[in-house]
Specification:
Pfam families: Guanylate_cyc, HTH_77. There is one protein chain. The chain is an alpha/beta fold. Among the domains are: 2-186, Alpha-Beta Plaits (2-Layer Sandwich), CATH 3.30.70; 218-355, Rossmann fold (3-Layer(aba) Sandwich); 365-440; 793-927. Helices cover 52% and strands 12% of the residues. It is built from 40 helices and 21 strands. A seven-stranded mixed sheet has the order 4-5-3-6-9-11-10, sandwiched between helices. Strands 13-14-15-12-16 form a five-stranded parallel sheet, sandwiched between helices. The chain is elongated.
Length: 929
Amino acid sequence: MNRDFQGAEVPRVSARIHLPNGLVTFMFTDIEGSTRLAQMLGAGYRPVLSEHRRLLRRTLSESDGTELFTEGDSFFVAFSDAAAAVDACLTAQRALAAHEWPSAESTPRVRMGLHTGQAEAVNGEYASPEVHRAARIAAAAHGGQVLCSAATARHAAPLPPEASLLDLGLHRLRGFDDRERLFQLVAPGLERQFPRPRTADAASHNLPTQVTSFVGRHAERSELGTLMSEHRLVTVVGAGGAGKTRLAVELTGGLVETYPDGVWFVDVATVTDPGLVAFAIAAVLGLRPEPGRPVVDTLVEYAASRRMLLLLDTCDAQLTAAAEVISRLLTGGGGVRVLATSREPFMLPGEAVWRIPPLSVAPGPGGGPSEAVALLLDRTTASRGGRRSDPAESDDLHRVVSRLDGLPLAIELAAARLRVLSASQLAERLDDVLGALDAGRDDPEQTYAGDGRWIASQMETVDLARTPAGKRTLATRSATQRHATIQATVTWSYRTLGPRAARLLRWLAVFSGPVDLQTVEWLLDDDPLDPLSVLVDKSMIQAEPHASGTTYRMLDPIRAYAARRLVDAGEERAARDRHVAWSLYALQKAHLGPDERPVTLSLYSLDPLADEMRAALRWTATGGSARAGLRLAGGLDQWWRERGLAREGRLWLFRLYGRIAETGEPIPEAELAAAYHMHSLHAGADGEFAEELRFSQRAEAAARQAGDAGLLARVLAGRGGTLVDMGQLADAERVCREVIDWAAASDVANEALLAVYTLAELLWQRGALDDASEVLGAARPLEAARPAERGRRSVDFLLGMVALGRRDLIAAHDHLVVALRSRIGHGFHSRACDAICAIAVRCALGGDPVTAARLFGAAQATRSALRSTPGRFGAYWAERQAAVRAALGDAAFDTAYAEGGALSVADAASLALSVDHPDMALGSPRFAA
């Protein structure tokens, strides 16, 4: 007795039946899921089985096949010709598919296997291992599939018209030590897509093979691995192009040995219908739908007793359906774990949501390249044909990855651009991220299918399964198209947004950095919590918790996309005007305390606003109100100069003047006078003295037209500094005195404070220390009454300089410490350098030249970073520094100076403030007795 491929005994065939000998092709068939079909149909199964037998026997009667036996739903047939066997299988499958069965659920799905080998019939039976090989090939097939061995493939010519054999590779059949190359019969009328063959060497995973190296993410791999060991469902959430899939595949690749029943990758993005999510997972696991039974039940039953890991990728494509299947799998058995990637979480019980961060742009260990730069270097080397980037490009490469917020997809696209551009050229073009990275690529709007999918010109289709209605559903393999451009990646998520969330995303594009909830409320003049939550859940906005509250940040590539959508929606003017209004409000708030009363200005409160102010200024200079732009620039008046950005401030003002000329927007004379006065101060700080005088004169003319005495006093008070910068010291002193007297007579004395400072400096320079001290003493209450200026403590600084001139170290120390502490505490860094230099002089005069040299070095380093000049005391600092060098000698001075140069301005201030008071020094008058 032989046994068929299900293990049943094969009855001996009558010796009177002619059996082929020599090269014989054996065919085995049976109905997949016959037990389940019989249970479902009950008495209706027998007619289906009989009709199945009739169709197969009719096919066999028209071929040269000899039926050896039929038992239950199985056939065992021998052919003398391999081509005839293949033709019989094709005809039989077509007949089964074309037949009108009682219902779609009752349609029998027949699997067939062929093998050709030498065999001799003895006493009506074949005692040959080739029979068993054919049986195992049939057992490896799925319902509706025809598999054959390589031997059958060799002898099957000619194939039926339009038919071909698809090579499925080598497989080890159960009970055989060697590997058999299997082929699938492909022809019109036959299904093409099937799970992998059911063979003994079924792979323990189907993770995609990566063609590029994996860079960085060491901390993330460790953190995510720990999370997976503690939770059965972990969802990696992040924006499109953040590297979720790549990280998940890399991590699970190292876990294959941990799961005896395999690690299985399913790309949910290829599923076009929610009802087919379970079908897609089942197909990957080698499962076929059972008649009359939901495929999810088949899936849960299969997984219940197994220990395996499912990697479900891009679940946001079918979020609800994927969540339902995951929930069923996790509750159906304890051995299944799920790692999912998505742009938003499932919100399932027990789900651990892990948000993938961008690649780090901070320097690596030992000062090496950051992870983001390392990825860019790796991909750039490949795009340039193996030629490595020049070390001179390192700074520009860092600029590129910083501008791209460490987003891996953007970095990959940038590397492709570096094939034709230098790093510096690319960095300069990244103000338009989409234009720089997407230019020349397919327009995603041309390939968008309208249902959340992308259609490519060379699209691979996958027939996942038959639906209950018997219709084939095609899924598109769209991952490549989704990530072909930044715009395609973001559109994938944008299309899923409701109207409120989409509008919020567009309007948030006007901000250049993180915003808090109050700011979002200001922008929309509405409660933004619901749409904001949607954007965070979909990873289009990054929520970053802090002790003071949560801020919300949009990655630059997403912002660039949202900005384009803002223009397309016709909302740009309204949104950007609203942003300008917020920027003016934020500047105003920086000058006020909790009680809405003016407080001493701290430039530190303006530092976080700088990028927002620039974004607002850009709009006012190109499409908005230039008048609002002048107010914005004026709110940053001192900030520009104290941060070494006087030149930038001047450039913004020039652009705004051009906007005024272009639009003819009326600007009040008082506001023009204030802008020209600020421009004059910027020009003086930038060493452009002719420009300084020109705008000082324009400011005076506008102020006189405005008829505002206080404004005119403030403008004229700056004229003395302009004359000093031009070397006209006598005229400067005369103008300062005249302005001070006129302002006092006009009851606007506090507006002439700048003239007081300039006069005190002039008196100090010519040694009139008593006069300088008297002028400054009278100015102290004026300074205290001006919150915008009192943080500089210029009166104390100048009194300290007067004390140094008198060699009164105690008074100098007292005044200079007060000035420095206030300047560094309120963010006046440029002026803090003057105070640090003054304390260096005090140290030198007090017998501590080493500390003096350090402080001089620190002040110069900060000035260099700020690109600012030593100012009006520069000659004095140089003279005192030369004296310290002479006292120490070149070597010792240079060492101490270099040590100071390594300090930040805050550290330098700490060093200066730590200098002991002269009263504490040995020999102090306090201890003379």
